[in-house]
Amino acid sequence: MEIAVGVLGALTILAVVVAWYSLRWVRMRRGGGVSVALRWRPDEARSSWHLGLGRYEGDEFVWFRVWSLRTGPDRVFQRASMEIADRRDPSGTEAYAVPEGSIVLRCESATQEAIEIAMGPGALTGFLSWLESAPPGRRLPRAS
């Protein structure tokens, strides 16, 4: 009997966690957003890709990790300080960790650590448009 109660308790906890993730994902998607993989500290050997959803909120690009219990964004990037330093195709096994057909952008900022963002062609177009729509007078260097 005790084993059955323990199994029932574990299944209940599992159901609550699955429901939480499902509701969180629906809520994030409802607000609009694009599938984006993000890697911070890309120069470190043990740096890995994290799947998530990116959304534009005015002058901020907010990123929500898929497998997180946080209700708010996991990372927030300011448009005014974000610059594209490099652009490349995924290499090696990296192609399996990022959305299909992705381009990888290395973004640097004077106020935040360097990151790499991997996104598909449609998301990339939206991201570049968002970056370029900065206020007049702001120069946006772009890697070729």
Structure overview:
The protein has about 140 residues and is of the alpha+beta class. It contains two helices and seven strands, in the order αβββββββα. A hairpin with a 2-residue loop joins β2 (about 50-55) and β3. The longest helix has 29 residues, at about 1-30. The chain starts with a helix and ends in a 12-residue tail after the last helix. About 20% of the residues are buried. Pfam families: DUF2550 (PF10739). It comes from Amycolatopsis azurea DSM 43854. Keywords: Membrane, Transmembrane, Transmembrane helix.
Rounded radius of gyration (Å): 18 Å
Strand content: 25-35%
- Measured as a percent range, the helix fraction is 25-40%
Query: Which structural class do the helices and strands define?
Result: alpha+beta
| Low-pLDDT runs | none
**Number of helical runs?**
2
The end-to-end span amounts to 67 Å
